[in-house]
Every structure is written in C-alpha cells, then in structure tokens.
Amino acid sequence: MLPTPIGRQREVLCLPAEGHHVVLGTAGSGKTTLAILRSAYLADPSTDHHGKTLLVTFNRALVTYLKHLQERALDNVTVETYHTFARGYLGHRGKMSYNDICSNPRQRVELIQQAILEVSKNYREHPLFSYPVELFSEEFRWLAQHGISTCAGYEDAERVGRGAARFHKKFRKVVFEIYEKYKELRSAAGWSYDWDDLATAVSDEFNQDNTPRLYKHVVIDEGQDFSPEMIRSLVKAISPNGSLTFFGDVAQQIYGRRMSWRSAGLAVRKIWEFKENYRNTKQIAQLGLAISRMPYFTGTADLVEPVTPTADGPLPTLVHCSSKEAEIELAINQAIQMAKTQSVAILTRDRAAEKTIKSRLPRTAIRLHRDMTTWQAGPGIRYGTYHSAKGLEFDAVILPFCDRETLPDPKEIEAFGWDEATRQDGKLLYVGVTRAKTRLIITYSGEPTNLLPDDANLYERVSR
Length: 464
Description:
The protein is α/β, with parallel strands linked by helices and about 475 residues long. It contains 15 helices and 15 strands. It is globular and about 60 Å long. The mean pLDDT is about 85.
C-alpha cells in the first residue's frame, strides 16, 4: 500500500495542480514517498484536476523500486527514467531510430580524441591540445546539459563546476570547434545523439510540436541529478493547465550540475523544504550532517540542513583493516550475518570496486543496476555503486574501500584537480552514508579518507 503522508508532507501533497513547484529535502525526509503520493493525487480520476502523469527519475534501480510500489492508485501514472521518456518521445516524432545513441563511453572518448587531433592540425602547437581528454568530455557534457548550441552562447556563458579554470575564455572558440567536430564525427559513425544531448533534441522537438501533450502533470524525483536542459524539456512536456513538481536534495547532487531555477525554465514563487529525517537513526544522521558541513560542501546552493531524528541506534562503525582483502572478507561476513533479518547493501564508489566484491557474494545477492526489472523487498543482500543506490534505503549499509588512496579517486584528481574531485566524491560518500536506516559500517585500509569528518565522537572505531 502507498505510505501515509506525515507533517508538512500533507501540505506539499495538495499543492495546486497547476504551475511549477520545487520541494527540497534532506536525505531521509520522504521526498520519494511524496513524489509517489503527489503522482497518485494528480492522476486521481475522481478529482477535477486529474490527468495522465509522468513520474520521472534518473536512476533505473529507483524506477524498478517505484514500480514495485505501484498499485491501483498509480494506474494513470507512467514511471520511467528521463532517458526512457526522451527516447520514447523522439521515437514517436520520428527522430529516433535503432542504435541512434552513442551509448558506449569508450567510443565517445575515442571520437573526442579524434576530434582534438583533427582540429589541432589547423593550429600551431599549443598546450590546449594536450589537455586530458576527460576535460574535453566534461566540457562537452556541460555544453549539452545547458543547451548551449552556438559558439557565441558558449563564449558568453558563465562556466562553473568541473574544469572551470582549465579552459580560459580565450580558448573557447577552439574548444567549441572541437565540440562541433566531435558531433560531426559521431554523426558520420551513425549516431545522432549521445546521452547528454538527448535533452536538447527533446526540447527542440517540443518547440516544433503543436499536438496536445501526452502528460498533464510531471513529477520529478531525485531532481538534483537532472540537467537544466532536461528540466526545460519536461516543462515543455506538460499541458498549459498542467503542473510540474520537482523533488530534490542538493546535497546529493553527484553529477556536477549547478543551476538556478529560472535558468532551468521553472517559474517558482516558493521553495518548500523538508528538514525532518524519517529514515536514519540519530547517530547516522549526525554523520551525514557532519559530512554536509565539510569544506567541499561550502557554497552549495539550496542545501537543506536536516533536523536530527530522535530514533536511537549504534554509532557508525569505522573499521581499520589490515588490507583490502581483509575489507572484502569483513564486508561479506557482516552482510551475510545481517541479511538473515535485515536488508543490507554493500556500496562502492564505482563498478571496478564492485567487481572485487561480486565474486565473493552469495548467489542470492541482488545487484543494483540500470537494467533491473524486478524488486525484491525484505531481508537479503544488495550490492552496487553509490550512484545506483540513490533514492533507495536499507536497514544496514556497508561502505568498503574508504581509504585515502581511493577517495577521492586519483583519476578524478589528475583530471579535474583536488577541489573538484573532493566535491564530487564527497557528495557520493554522503549518498552512501545516508542510505542506511539503522546500521552503518565503513571500512578502510591504510589511512581513512579525508572526505570523512575527523570527529571521533561520530564513530565507533575498530581495528581488524
């Protein structure tokens, strides 16, 4: 059954069924619960405001979880990721064919490298062309996410976030030339889009589409992960008398996007805030709050500081292990033991780390991933990346490999610098920590990551 709204959740549930609404909340404040309830309310055929409703999020694992909760109250609600929505709409408009997206990251990087090489032939030797390809990749992603399609628009844009200091404004003309060459090479290879410029294609197509909109209402869950161009396109997807409701947590913004509501196409009069934490125990919430006060969170816009919950529990356990092998053994043994009565998740920074855990897990362990089609509730082991767990919660969470040599990721530091790497991986760590309802175990070998607060009162420290 659908959950019952609590406290201020009741007010947000019944916000007007027209216009744009933004709800920001801390981890554990019930944003996903309200996204579900709001969708059911807007789609309810017994009301005068009812209409077909899209509940959209970024994470496929979360979509699977939401569909698991789906009941008759959600019969008129479509639950899907943004990219599924985008592909469906473009396909309906005859602008998407089979294998039309450059979806392989390696192939995308190879095309960018080729574009850099070809453009460099037109210029004298310059250090710009020796910059890491990751910088160009992120810059192109930023251009697409913000819907910047001309060199003039790029030269005038205020660039914040990754690589802000790497490409001086005087280089933007050349960078944009490389961007255009990349798209030309991609098109020649048979791909009209990559994952990042799908939103621009959708937005542009809606500008030409005079047919009635399929959806009257759109509800965005985990909206902090949506680019400005994604949100703009969803604003255009609703009927003139419809509504768009945005639920998000800026502290969980792990895809590096920063934006104003106006630049994202939203006309918002009031920002609603959920500060009550209904998920975590007091001890886990205090660690999450301490992480959100770390220097790498400084300047994060719209950060909602949580109200510490009253539910009591054990301190998060910070375990020093003799080696990474010892970390794996500890994580597996603890997960198996706790999973007899609880839902347990082992979460890692990336897929490479996940693979080191996978082979040692019981066959019944469930991987959180983009192609999940079913959700199994109750006790058991889940495993995956911090990204894949966004929006989800588990009784117990184990976070291995939280050492100084792993977090922040050395490759991120090399490509984007210490400050940006800590900002991104710090938010990832925040996501992992706040997935835990009652029990949290963090392990490391060597020295603990600098991304963790050093207040000894936040942890129970153990050596193995």
